[in-house]
Each structure stands twice: as C-alpha cells, then as structure tokens.
Amino acid sequence: MAYGDNKGGYGDREMHKVTCSDCGKETEVPFKPSGDRPVYCKECYQKHRPPRRY
Asked: How many degrees, rounded to 5, is the angle at CA 41 between CA 38 and CA 45?
C-alpha cells in the first residue's frame, strides 16, 4: 500500500458497518461497537463532539 492510500487514516484496521444512531445512515467505524453507547456517522459525530478547549 502506498503512503496516503488508506481509508481515512486508519490504514489496515478492520472496519465495522454500523447504522448512525442519529440520522440512520449506514457507515463504517474502525472499532467494534459494544452496543451500550451510540455510534455516529462522521457528519453527526461532528455535531455531538464536545467543543475543543485551547
């Protein structure tokens, strides 16, 4: 694999298909969800993410 030729910066990590808890869109995440917490697509995660502190 060439440098920069990976999926969103995750390299060869196994991706898991999930349904976004907010909008219902199917997406993939680089971890296996445990089921006890919501999982969001990239767009919805940005809305739910806590603000950065500088």
From this structure: 70
Separation of alpha carbons 22 and 52, rounded Å: 21
Measured distance CA(41)–CA(28) in Å, rounded: 8
Q: Mind listing the pLDDT tens digit for each residue in 18-38?
A: 999 999 999 999 999 999 999
- Dist. CA 8–CA 30, nearest whole Å: 10
Token readout for 41 is: 């697509």
DSSP state letter for 2: -
Rounded to whole angstroms, how far apart are CA atoms 8 and 44? 16
What's residue 39's pLDDT? Answer: 94
pTM: 0.65
